[in-house]
Amino acid sequence: MITATDISVGYGGKLVIESAGLQAGSGEVVGLIGPNGSGKSTLLRTLYAALKPTAGLVLVDERPVTELRGNELARRIAVVAQETPTELPVSVAEMVLLGRAPHRKALAAMSREDHRAVASALARVGARHLADRRYSTLSGGEKQRVLVARTLAQQAEHLLLDEPTNHLDIRYQHELLRMVGELGTTTVVVLHDLNLAARYCSKLVLLANGGIIAAGTPHQVLAPELLLQVYGIHAQPVLVDGILQLVFSLADEPELQHSGSPVPG
Amino acid sequence: MTPLDSAVRAHREPLAGSGDDLDHDRRARHAWLWICALLSVLLVSVPVAVGLGPVAIEPGTVLQILKAHLSGAADSGAFSASDESIVLLLRVPRVLLGAAVGAGLALAGVALQALTRNILAEPYLLGVTSGASTLSAASILFGAAAGIGTASLAASAFAGALAAGIFVYLLARIGSEMTSTRLVLAGVSVGYVLHALTSLLIFASDDPNAGRSVLFWTLGSLAQATGQSVMITWVVVLGTATLLAYWSRPLDALAIGDGTAQALGIAPAKLRASVMVVTAVCVGALVASSGGIGFVGLVIPHVARLCVGSTHRILIPVAALLGAVFLVWADVLARTAMAPQELPLGIVTALLGAPLLFALVRKLNAAQ
What we know:
Number of helices of chain B: 16
Strand order of the largest sheet of chain A: 6-7-8-3-9-10
Distance between the termini of chain B: 48 Å
Number of helices of chain A: 9
Helix content of chain B: over 70%
Oligomer: heterodimer
Structural class of chain B: mainly alpha
CATH class of the domain at 108-297 in chain B: Mainly Alpha
Largest sheet of chain B: none
Order of helices and strands of chain B: HHHHHHHHHHHHHHHH
Order of helices and strands of chain A: EEEHEEHEHHHEHEHEEHHEEE
Radius of gyration of chain A: 19 Å
Shape of chain A: globular
Strand content of chain B: under 5%
Number of strands of chain A: 13
Shape of chain B: globular
């Protein structure tokens, strides 16, 4: 369980996040949504203590995250962060083995268990055959799957993902988020695509200008009046086979005719 | 058990139960094979290299001389006194210094490439060689009257190297946290300024020997090896290797990126600062004892990565051993290729290293 309360983050006197909070219960998938620059990634970074908030408290399983040191933190929380690619050649196996680092002592060799965990994690994301490829030669979708495999090898109960569907083909976007949902970990995921958020998150938190606008179920948070206020776009909710999806139109366009049934109430 | 619990269990359990271990035995064997092979090559190279030079001495004779020296036995008459003094006073310190300097340069290269995530990073990126040559040029030109000897010349080179390293570090973190790009920028600009200063000093001086002495710091040489400099260099290099090996796991993460490091509970800025200080001290000591020998720290880490991959726990010993073997043999070439004239070592390492670098570039591109 992750609980963040009254988080404020400031850079040089300017507040980027102002008293924001969120709660992710055990096994829940919470989506962080909001326009560019609304503070989604910043808030996410405070959850694994990569960023120290100027005020507020983050609890991971009822313990302040700032009290968790190095390996202990990494054994509880696994992260898929946005990263500029390195120039150094790194193999896929080495990339996933990084997830085993928090489980090893400083000078200890990689054990058979470590390698088993890596093989199994790669197999689960359908990337076992890529083990000896160079990471930089993979496609965007393969890279994201390898990074998720690293979090699996890390065997943490909490998972934080920063826009994991970036640069992915539509099919991989859905595969990845479905897989994340099936893991059973307590997950917080930053997403740009509101339809993906509606479909795969049990709870959503909507941010704008560093503050929380709304939090709750996708039905509550993806309300047209809220989206118009935050994103400046008209959203028409439709239910397709019981799944909430949004059809967008700009303010100066005529309303789109849609074939799905409108959401009641 | 709730469905949620079983999902969480399913997430953790299959990792232990599966039979696929990614060929664990082959991977472990592969790393050890490289380390053992390189160690053997180094152990054979040292006595052979001691025998090679303008005056060639059989490896067997070298071993006899060493054995007699180490056991303190009286002259058995199996070798001449001149051979003995060449081996003990000239060659052994020189070869041992070469092994230590080669290992140290390779270690510094591995560390700096991981810090900056830049494949062109090398020990002299921090401006330390330029710092050493500037300060030693200054002390040759202005300190000659004060009777500065080789020992204090080495000391001023070390001081110059360290000062430059610290200055680059401070420059890179002015105003905000140090990033890889800022470090590279600071190192390159400080290096150019110091280089210009050195040239200015030589240009302004009337001493015809000054230029030649400064060449030593810019091209490097193992000819000044003494028992003391060998000892100090070995201690510094072994210390550096131990510390870097201790940091091998965080270095793995840092080589991928700051975000990855933070995600694994590592503070990247703190680690980068510690590794920088250790590297600056190490390179400072290397430059003080042997000048600025180029290409070793740039090329050897890449060769080592091709052999054993990028996991620093294995990469560190393999790169150190490769660097040691490489420099011992490069120095053999330096003193035999145009004997009795001796080539500056930096010229040999550049001539050997540059084609290696081309081959690596081709290899890296082919794998893309």
